[in-house]
Amino acid sequence: MLVPEIAVAHDSVTAAAGFNAGLLHPWLPAEQTMSLLAAALLAGRYCGDRPMRVLAAFSIAFVAGLAIPPSTFTLSTIGLCLMGLALAASALVALNASLPAVAVVAFTAAAGLLDGIASAPDPDHWDVVAAFVAGNVLRAALIFSIPLVVADWFIREKRWQWAKIGIRMVAAWIAAIALLMQALILATP
Question: Which residues touch 76 (CB under 8 Å, ≥6 apart)?
Fold first, then answer.
């Protein structure tokens, strides 16, 4: 009781705690949430009539990222990559750039891979890894799919011009936040 426990990133002990840790963990690091939102807005804006291709690329890359050991990259490197992706994806949406389908798939796959790497379970918790991964998959699917579907619905189904402007404004805010977060990551010793 008087001796401190070992500090780990994911303090899960049971399968239920592992699922909750996987589901809730990436909501706290803003880098992961920002990159997923930016990639989802990009996909929703430009995926056209093939959102399943984008979702498949994201899902496969996310699972591949989970397989990469957490110690492969430093957290600041992953954070910079996530913020760079968020900045690029959201800036493209905000600027209303025209993109080929392969670029949209590449951005979403990169977001999935980086999010998977950032969400990989600690090696000390392999007893709950399945529950942790299930929670992570659900969390990533929600953060990525909901903005993608909403943006796609506003733009393609409803064809509301105000929605295009609104999505571009949200993307511009994400780009600004990503730029500031990159500066903070680089300024931290």
Answer: 185, 188
